Structure formats: C-alpha cells, structure tokens
Automatic annotation (TrEMBL):
Protein name according to UniProt: Helix-turn-helix domain-containing protein
Gene3D superfamilies per UniProt: 1.10.238.160
Species: Gilvimarinus gilvus
Ranges for domain Helix-turn-helix: 6-54
Length: 63
C-alpha cells in the first residue's frame, strides 16, 4: 500500500478530517501532497511519514 496514491477525499477520510481541512493543510504546505492537473494527490507513504512526524512533535507538548 506504500506506493498507493490517494485523492483529497481519500486522504481526508484516512485522517478523519473534513475535505476542506485537508485541502487547507495541503495548500499551506503542512500536509505533503502534489497537484496533478489542478487536483491534489498524496502518496500514502508520505502521509504515513507525516503522521509519525506529527506524533513525535506532539510527544513533547504539555497536556
């Protein structure tokens, strides 16, 4: 599954986000993605690496 390419809707579903939120994160460069013909696409492997990066960032945050 690591070579799989996800659409904006699929990545939003995967991350349990609204499509609008996923779009905003991608447009701001916070979520790793790329555009193909004006539509956002995401490599599953990149999204999973991003999740791990977010987890390690948040491990040091006070709760």
């Amino acid at each position: 599954m690591s070579d799989q390419i996800l659409t904006l809707k699929e990545v939003a579903d995967y991350l349990k986000l609204a499509e609008k939120t996923a779009y905003r994160l991608a447009a701001e460069g916070k979520l790793p993605g790329f555009k193909v013909g004006g539509s956002w696409r995401f490599k599953c492997q990149d999204v999973e690496a991003w999740i791990e990066q977010q987890k390690s960032k948040n491990n040091g945050a006070p709760q």
